[in-house]
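One such given next:
>
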Amino acid sequence: SRFDATSWERLAIASDAAPWGVVKDSSGNPVKMTRTAVEATAADNIQGAIGQYSAITKSKVASWHPDTSWSVPAISNNPAWLALWVLKGPMNYKPLADSDIDLPSFKAWADACTAAGITYNRMQDGETTPHKVLREIMVIGRAKMIQPSGNKLAVMVDGVKSTVVQHFTTRNSWGFSWKASRSKTPDLVKVQWLNPAIGYQQDERLVYNDGKSADNVQTFQTVQLPGCTDAAIAYKYGRFFLAQDSARRRVYQFYTHHEGLLCTQGDLIQITNPLIGAGLGQGRIKSFTTDGSGD
């Protein structure tokens, strides 16, 4: 047969080359990336190109132990190990070395999160920074990043302290002042979290103050808890929010010489000052004696 004209409608090209290029960090080292390939059969509800699809993913991160050092990366949603991954991982333009981090403080935080059943689960699907992600993780993990000494980043966990690190009196401090909040603690806290039962859509966990219920609520406050996918964690955070709003009403401020400053952020201190009626008196140590062992 003879054709006077032809038309080219489609050209399919097959190649053995990798469909993605190599991603490198700021030091030029290749970054391991997780990639997904989807194969679908045409059906009534699948036609043309697939614009978007949903998937439940999990992060593999390494954990640290003082006896065995770093572990093989494994699936984890512990806030401490995820925070370390953000500090040291490829998403950070300048990843921190082990020598820049107080690793034992992160291990203590990880143990506290495990004991309390606290986890962090969130997909970062928009533009953000490591600092913002760390702040989210710190909020749900009830911790704060500090840099007490030696220029190492450490974690201060918001928990019960039993050991007094330093005692401040009118002898080693001055300019003492204080202020108190007079605002009323809300009757209800609405904690916003992601509910897996409804496709990880935003939901609210209602947390009532002591003596309050749906019948006598007058005031409420809404708080967001990014990374929370557990109603129990949302409830605990709501109770923690109410407790600290009620108990942490006073802020004390004073000056002291930095040469004698032993405590750091998060430490338990003791105050003796007549302005708040704390303590009966104080004095200076003029001399001391030691035994044969130097004690």
Notes: Residues 231-247 form the longest helix (17 residues). The longest strand covers residues 188-195.
